[in-house]
Amino acid sequence: MTGNFGNINTLCGLIFLTCLGSFQDTVIASIKNQPQLIVKQQVQGKNSQPHSVFKPIIAELKQKTQIKILLPQYISESDGENPVYAIIETATKNKYEILLGFTPDCTGGTACRLGIITAEAITPKMPRLSGKAVLLAKGITGYFVDFRCGANCSDATLTWKQQGVQYTIGLKAGDLNSLTKMAKSVIKL
Known about the structure:
Elements: H1 2-31, H2 34-44, H3 55-64, E1 85-92, E2 95-101, E3 113-121, E4 132-135, E5 141-145, E6 155-162, E7 165-172, H4 176-186
Antiparallel strand pairs: 1-2, 2-3, 3-7, 4-5, 5-6, 6-7
């Protein structure tokens, strides 16, 4: 009978130490700056890295903008023969615009353009989102606007608001499925 109490004491001690270790992590997490802690965890996670095309521009984006940087893991057309490049068009404290192109010096010309990724801090002057409502992840609704063609085709876009920032992903003559897949790879579950 005393052997059982020894095992129970050992088990209780292990549970106590485990709880104490978790409490210490919780205290540290609540003391540190939360956005930095979240970014650190995203970088360490297996499935939370943005697509490799963004690697050359991430440091510059982090230096220039203060809004949360969300970049997709999945990019339509990036697994084909043509490489895709991410080019910063704008990066300010409250906004960034990234051009996705098939050449490293693409300036948005029709032949080299794949699409765009933008983010901007929400202000009261921003127009209301419009388009076809699409349920994304984490209960977030995006709004799809289809492309139009004339002499050239425009981007189809998917726009949503998350944590005080309006994000848009666009693909030249893109389709809803590709844009939704890109957006869901941005919105972490």
